[in-house]
Amino acid sequence: MAKVHILDHPLIQHKLSLIRDENTGAKDFRELVEEVSMLMAYEVTRDFPLQDVEVKTPVATMTAKAIAGRKVGLIPILRAGLGMVDGMLRLIPTAKVGHVGLYRDPETLKPVEYYCKLPTDVEERDLIVIDPMLATGGSATAAITFLKDRGAKSIKLMCLIAAPEGIKEVQNYHDDVDIFVAAVDDYLNDHGYIIPGLGDAGDRLFGTK
Ligand code: PRP
Ligand code: URA
User: Fold this and answer.
1) How many CB atoms lie within 10 A of CB 88?
2) CA gap 171, 178 in Å, rounded
3) HSE-CB for 135 with a 13 A CA cutoff
4) Ligand 1 mean position to 139 CA, how many Å?
């Protein structure tokens, strides 16, 4: 069974509380989502292997450490996943970014695909699917299936807030995908919103309603 990692670093938790606050406007919301994503990227990449490299400092030569040739792909689920990309690229600047466009049909709550553009070599990359919200889990499950159908072998999922229902759904279909979240909230309401959550992540990021 894939692991669920709850990233409880105080900076992540503090910023997440600000993100949740209904009085936080779009500009601060965007900046905070970016900052939390950067902090989470630090934890998501914790298992990247290191290799020895020779480095010449101004005073000596030494054997130092470098990340061992990892090729990373960030896969934001449009739209809201876009808000997490820049923060992650600050820490993993060589990552390629692939986009998967999915929206939830408001009636059925089922994901509808409308866009996809991936790096050509997804099968060689460590992919990190990013989306602020894991609610029913339908969107993340569909995005991961989509990536696997195109040959992806190494996939992690990173979200700010998850509902227990969403975690279960992803684990049911993809028990090889570790899930990284800043919080697991209480439940989903009748409209599929995470309670207490933060509201509609896409609308809050982009100022739409
Ligand atoms: C939100 C969110 C996830 C999805 C989660 O996107 O960003 O992609 O809902 O819900 P699920 O786990 O029940 O599938 P939304 O469909 O609102 O589209 P948007 O990002 O374009 O606003
Ligand atoms: N999508 C959101 O943006 N928020 C939720 O609470 C659930 C799905």
Assistant:
1) 25
2) 9
3) 24
4) 7
Q: Which fold has domain 4-47+72-206?
A: Rossmann fold (3.40.50)
Report how far ligand 1's centroid is from the alpha carbon of 1 (Å). 25
Question: pLDDT tens-digit profile of 80-119?
Answer: 999 999 999 999 999 999 999 988 888 898 889 999 999 9
Pairing relationship of beta strands 178-184 and 4-6 according to DSSP bridges: parallel
Q: Is 4 helix (H, G, I), strand (E, B) or coil?
A: strand
Domain boundaries, the chain: 4-47+72-206
Residue 195 · residue 188 · CB < 8 Å: yes
Which helix (H) or strand (E) is 110 found in, with range? none
Mean pLDDT of the chain: 95
Which of 137, 133, 139 is closest to 203 using CA atoms?
Answer: 133
Q: Which atom of ligand 2 is nearest to the CA of 201?
A: 3
- Report pLDDT for 104: 81
The response to whether residue 165 sits with its C-beta less than 6 Å from ligand 1 reads no
| Dihedral angle of Cα 202, 153, 178, 182, to the nearest 10 degrees | -30
| Encoded tokens for 63 | 């054997």
Instruction: Provide the 10 A C-beta neighbour count for residue 34.
Output: 19
The ligand minimizing its distance to the Cα of 161 is 2
126-130 and 99-104 as β-strands: parallel, antiparallel, unpaired? unpaired
